[in-house]
Write a structure and sequence with these properties.
Rossmann fold; 2 domains; elongated
Amino acid sequence: MKVGIFDPYLDDLGGGEKYMMKITQCLAGNNHDIDIFWDNKKDLDELKDRFLLDLSGIKLEKNIFSTQTSLFERLKQSRKYDIIIVLSDGSIPLLLCGKIFLHLQQPLSFQKIGLTERLKLLKIKRIFCNSYYTKSFIDKTLKVKSDVLYPPIELKPKKVNKENIILHVGRFRVKNNKNGDYKKQSVMIDSFKDMIRKGLKDWRFVLAVSVKEKDTIGFNKLKKNAQGFPVEFIVNKNNDQLWDIYSKAKIYWHASGFGEDLGKHPEYAEHFGISTVEAMGAGVVPVVIDAGGQKEIVQDGKSGFLWNSLPDLKEKTILLINDNKLLTMMSEEAKKRAEVFSGDRFCKELYQILDL
């Protein structure tokens, strides 16, 4: 079977791109003929290096979704494929392949759903999302019943001694919103600084972040804000190197969506939370915001804590720091919970959605 894959954000090196490449791995592993529509091989190589992906046997083809490609050419080329899977950027593709599958990674607002878009939707075989959080908005906006396929999580904890580390993992990205702090990393740094000022000793806050060149100025400002405190930055590490720090940490923080109007901008919350699950897989207890996909991952009070305010974040963190028995119990529950999202589940569920 000939399958085409398109991800408009392939050069972004994010969790969505890993998700799409895992789809290609699942399909290539069953001897399907897989093409990725993209024009820059360097982007794919960087993605493979960052996430340690095996994409052997998968071919790059001219990006028929590029604005440089005419609609006629796109339709002509798409006819060669039995299936095309598209990560939507808020648009609905028009293609002539056998089946079209649309994937949504975030609660996008499809601004205009007129007759043309409705006709395009008739050609879509199935729509699948990365979380029930995303699904809740997509179903309402598009008036469809989408499926949920949670991201593929590979748990690779290492046998090392735990250290007094609070960890955060995520991209540093300047976002064009009112505060410019998309992942709320400055919010977490300020919270940790406050805890230090109030007497916390012998703990470090480690931020493992990926930073693009265009965001360097903003990132340097973030680092400057942390000077003089036990705050460390680990920058642009691959998956194996990230598991080094996951395995050492005890507590995990995440704050995407804090202070935002998520009714108006639901995309500002974490759409799922891959790094949260990975941290839990290494026995790191999550203390994460009660918003977005995080609520689908963490069982509040059992496998971690959810918080709604910064005093709540700090209070629950201090509770874990001061109660080693509770920390140990939640660490074991976090590992159990992470297993739900791991294993060969992803490929099996993908095949069910694609009806293969």
